[in-house]
Design goal:
Elements (H helix, E strand, L loop, with lengths): L1 E3 L8 E11 L2 E10 L2 E11 L8 E9 L2 H8 L8 E6 L3 H16 L8 H20 L1 E2 L1
Parallel strand pairs: 6-7
Antiparallel strand pairs: 1-2, 2-3, 2-6, 3-4, 4-5
Helix pairs in contact: 2-3
Length: 140
């Protein structure tokens, strides 16, 4: 976490990583910036070609949002669940776990009403494994 304060009478600004995914040649990160009682979420996405001779950046995007979910909508356009999840802040663990469950359901393409109790047990087991995996990469 980075703390910034320019003067003693100004509120302390804290910047912390709440979610980060990576792949060879890039990453997408969401930071939470706390300025007093106001939170702002900053999404940063960068990509480069690791095989290129130069260090040219192919993607360099930075956007600010007022909620985590709005920032995460940018990430939803990518197969983020298949990338390397580097950081999940403990405050967002349940939110990300639910998003992973939804991606799993999409991948299975099976409506809830067609799943039997054995299928549901299997999905819950997968969810528990996902939760444990997320716990292993949580940033405090």
């Amino acid at each position: 976490m980075i703390n910034k304060s320019t003067a003693s009478n100004e509120p302390e600004v804290k910047l912390e990583t709440v979610f980060e995914i990576g792949a060879e040649g890039g990453s997408i990160c969401i930071y939470r910036q706390r300025d007093g009682s106001v939170d702002k979420f900053i999404m940063y996405h960068n990509e480069f070609d690791p095989l290129a001779d130069d260090d040219e950046t192919l993607v360099d995007v930075k956007k600010e949002y007022d909620t985590f979910n709005k920032a995460f909508q940018y990430i939803e356009r990518f197969p983020w669940q298949s990338l390397y999840i580097k950081v999940v802040h403990k405050d967002f663990r349940n939110n990300i776990t639910e998003k992973l469950k939804e991606k799993l359901k999409e991948k299975l393409s099976v409506p809830d009403e067609l799943l039997n109790s054995e299928d549901l047990h299997y999905i819950e087991e997968i969810n528990e494994n996902l939760s444990r995996s997320l716990t292993d990469c949580v940033s405090s």
